[in-house]
Design a protein that fits this description.
Radius of gyration: 17 Å
Number of helices: 6
Strand content: 15-25%
CATH class: Alpha Beta
CATH topology: Beta Polymerase, domain 2
CATH architecture: 2-Layer Sandwich
Order of helices and strands: HHEEHEEEHHH
Structural class: alpha+beta
Distance between the termini: 35 Å
Helix content: 25-40%
Number of domains: 1
Number of strands: 5
Oligomer: single chain
């Protein structure tokens, strides 16, 4: 499963708008944590479609879905987290996969994250897609003289 995930890692960048993705093997299955600054996890249904695609995706299907990113009044740290459990399409294999997508819902100050992304050369067009309107300020307003391409 790890090799298959690694070959599809670009999906988290091209299909979704996540500013941070972590993945690890917990011994009993793979866990993926993806963080989105958008109020609704932009594209998580498209990501699920592509991860489960019969020909190009992983040999899995969504077995359980708990989606709370669209709930306006859900309290708490995990209140706007969507969780997806995947099971193997092949009943002879048991390689579980768990995807958790967190949405910030305006609770975080993103300036430090945006600055770190600019430092490593992230394209401005991708930063604009990953972070909601109103968080980003033009370089002139921030007082930066340098602009990254």
């Amino acid at each position: 499963m790890g090799n298959a995930l690694l070959r599809r890692i670009a999906l988290f960048h091209t299909v979704g708008a996540f500013y941070r993705v972590q993945c690890w093997d917990e011994g009993e299955g793979w866990k993926i944590d993806a963080h989105s600054a958008r109020p609704h996890a932009l594209g998580h249904d498209r990501l699920l479609e592509r991860l489960c695609h019969l020909r190009w995706g992983l040999p899995v299907q969504v077995s359980d879905r708990f989606c709370f990113c669209g709930e306006p009044d859900t309290p708490g740290q995990w209140g706007h987290t969507c969780s997806f459990y995947f099971g193997s399409r092949d009943t002879r294999r048991n390689d579980p996969l768990y995807l958790r997508i967190h949405t910030d819902r305006g609770r975080c100050d993103h300036e430090e994250r945006i600055g770190a992304l600019r430092e490593v050369g992230a394209p401005e067009s991708w930063i604009a897609r990953a972070f909601p309107q109103g968080i980003l300020q033009p370089d002139a307003e921030r007082g930066d003289a340098d602009q990254l391409l």
